[in-house]
Specification:
Strand order of the largest sheet: 6-7-8-3-9-10
Pfam families: ABC_tran (PF00005), BCA_ABC_TP_C (PF12399)
Number of helices: 10
Bound molecules: adenosine-5'-triphosphate
Order of helices and strands: EEEHEEHEHHHHEHEHEEHH
Enzyme class: hydrolase
Largest sheet: 6 strands, mixed
Number of strands: 10
Organism: Desulfotomaculum nigrificans (strain DSM 14880 / VKM B-2319 / CO-1-SRB) (Desulfotomaculum carboxydivorans)
Keywords: ATP-binding, Hydrolase, Nucleotide-binding, Transport
InterPro entries: AAA+_ATPase, ABC_AA/LPS_Transport, ABC_transporter-like_ATP-bd, BCA_ABC_TP_C, P-loop_NTPase
Helix content: 25-40%
CATH class of the largest domain: Alpha Beta
Structural class: alpha/beta
Low-confidence stretches: none
Strand content: 15-25%
Distance between the termini: 35 Å
Shape: globular
CATH topology of the largest domain: Rossmann fold
Radius of gyration: 19 Å
CATH architecture of the largest domain: 3-Layer(aba) Sandwich
C-alpha cells in the first residue's frame, strides 16, 4: 500500500482553482520532487497535506486512512513533518531549544508531568536533551547548540529547520525549497544530507525545489505541476526530456 495517496485533490480560492484534480502516490522510502513554475500550486499542495488548508474536494490518505479535516498537529503526530519556504524557526531561542520544543510535542509525560515535575519529567528531559544533541551532531550543528537560532548563517538555519522537522519523528518529510538561498557548496552538502537521512531514518521525502541541480541530482521521481495540474511524472531523465515540461517550465536550455 502507498504511504501517501492523494486522490483528485482540488482547492479553490474564490474563483481561482489553485490545485485541480491532483493525484499523487508516495511509497515508503520514495525520494520525490514536486516542481513547476511560480504560482503553479506547489506550496498549496503542502498546505493541504499538512492540514493548513482544507481541500475543496478530493482525499488524502496516509496508510490508507483519510487525514482530511485533521489539524496540523494531528497530522504531524501521524507522521508528516515539513519545512517552510521562508524559514520559520524560533529565532530568539537557542539551537537546541528549537529541537527540544519539537521533541516535546511527542513527549510522553504531558503537561501535568511537566508542571508537577513528576519523576518521568526528569528522565524524559534527559532523554530529550540527548536526542536533541544527537540530531544536532547528524546535522553538523552540535558545536552551535547554545547559539541563538537567528545568529546562525542562512544555510545552517535551513539545516536546523530540517533537524527540527526530524525531531517530530516523521515517516514523510516535506521540504519546501530547502536549497533556497544556499550557495553551490551548501546545496551539494544538502543533497548528500537529504539522501543520507532518507536511508538512515527509513524516510519518505517529497521536496519542492527550483534548483534543478538538486532536484535532478537527488529525486528518483518527479511530479511537475503547472496551473494546479500535474502535467508530467517521471524519472529525472524523463522529465528533462519531456516536451511539455520544457515548454511550461524548464526551457530549451535544459533539454
Ligand atoms: N490563501 C490563499 N488565498 C488566495 N490565493 C492563494 C492562497 N494560497 C495560494 N494562493 C494562490 O494559489 C496559487 C498557487 O500558489 P502557491 O504558493 O501554491 O504556488 P507555488 O507553486 O508554491 O509558487 P512558488 O514557486 O512561487 O512558491 C497562486 O496563484 C496563489 O496566489
Amino acid at each position: 500500500m502507498a504511504l501517501l495517496s492523494v486522490n483528485n485533490l482540488s482547492i479553490s480560492f474564490g474563483g481561482l482553482k489553485a490545485v485541480s484534480d491532483l493525484n499523487l502516490e508516495l511509497y515508503k522510502n520514495d525520494l520525490a520532487g514536486l516542481i513547476g513554475p511560480n504560482g503553479a500550486g506547489k506550496t498549496t499542495v503542502f498546505n493541504m497535506l499538512t492540514g493548513v488548508y482544507l481541500p475543496t474536494s478530493g482525499d488524502i490518505l496516509l496508510d490508507g486512512k483519510s487525514i482530511v479535516g485533521l489539524k496540523p498537529y494531528q497530522i504531524n503526530q501521524r507522521g508528516i513533518a515539513r519545512t517552510f519556504q521562508n524559514i520559520r524557526l524560533f529565532s530568539d531561542l537557542t539551537v537546541i531549544d528549537n529541537l527540544k520544543i519539537a521533541f516535546h510535542s511527542h513527549s510522553k509525560y504531558g503537561l501535568l508531568g511537566a508542571i508537577c515535575r513528576l519523576p518521568g519529567f526528569y528522565s524524559g528531559e534527559r532523554e530529550i536533551h540527548e536526542r536533541s544533541m544527537e540530531l544536532l551532531r547528524i546535522f553538523n550543528l552540535d558545536h552551535k547548540w547554545d547559539e541563538l537560532a537567528k545568529n546562525l548563517p542562512y544555510g545552517e538555519q535551513r539545516r536546523l529547520e530540517i533537524a527540527r522537522a526530524m525531531a517530530t519523528q516523521p515517516r514523510l518529510l516535506l521540504l519546501d525549497e530547502p536549497a533556497a538561498g544556499m550557495n553551490p557548496q551548501e546545496t551539494q552538502d544538502l543533497m548528500n544530507l537529504i539522501r543520507w537521512i532518507r536511508n538512515e531514518f527509513d524516510l519518505t521525502i517529497l521536496l519542492i525545489e527550483h534548483d534543478m541541480s538538486l532536484v535532478m541530482g537527488v529525486c528518483e521521481k518527479i511530479y511537475v505541476l503547472d496551473y494546479g495540474q500535474i502535467i508530467a511524472l517521471g524519472t529525472p531523465d524523463e522529465i528533462k526530456n519531456n516536451r511539455r515540461v520544457i515548454e511550461a517550465y524548464l526551457g530549451e536550455e535544459a533539454s
